[in-house]
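Hi Y.,

Following your request, here is the sequence exactly as I used it, all 181 residues.
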Amino acid sequence: MITDLAFRLRDLRDRNGWTVADMAERTGIPKRTLDKYMLRVGASLPGFDALCALSRGLGVSLDWLVFGSEGAGKALGLIVNRSSGYAIRLLVETILREHGAGNDKLIVGERILNLTPEDWGIQLGEIAQQEAEKLTSGGITLDELLVWEAAKKERAHELFKDMVEHMVPDLDDAARKILKL
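Below is the corresponding structure, written out as tokens. Let me know if you'd prefer a different format.
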């Protein structure tokens, strides 16, 4: 673990073209101490306060710093999925609301509600970012994200079943078994 942390610090330094002095300035940790954290053999392990200073000063998550991508990857992926789903749901709700209100200019040419696909991408990205920041600042746990993911998968399966039932109402039992309905 210590060697992994040392490797991540050296990699971060090299990728950003920083010197150890640059890193010291960014983090407030003395250069000599940072050198000890980045040794290839016998590296020192930073304490909690130093890890927090490294995370803040170098602009990386504490999860990534301590655990690497394998520790932060699953939770990050779920946060992205949940946040982007939230943003897309807002888009669809907006389109349905405008359609229900009889907006005859809902789609004009290549624009939806007078926005291009690129504009929608920018808007949805910003909404998803805000939602992700809200989730992470609220301290969402991996367990909470996994519960959400399981519920989402169950809901997707229910929607699939309903869609098949609607499209092919007289499916026989063998077909239902194959489709796991």
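The CA atoms of residues 60 and 151 lie 30 Å apart.

Thanks again,
Q.
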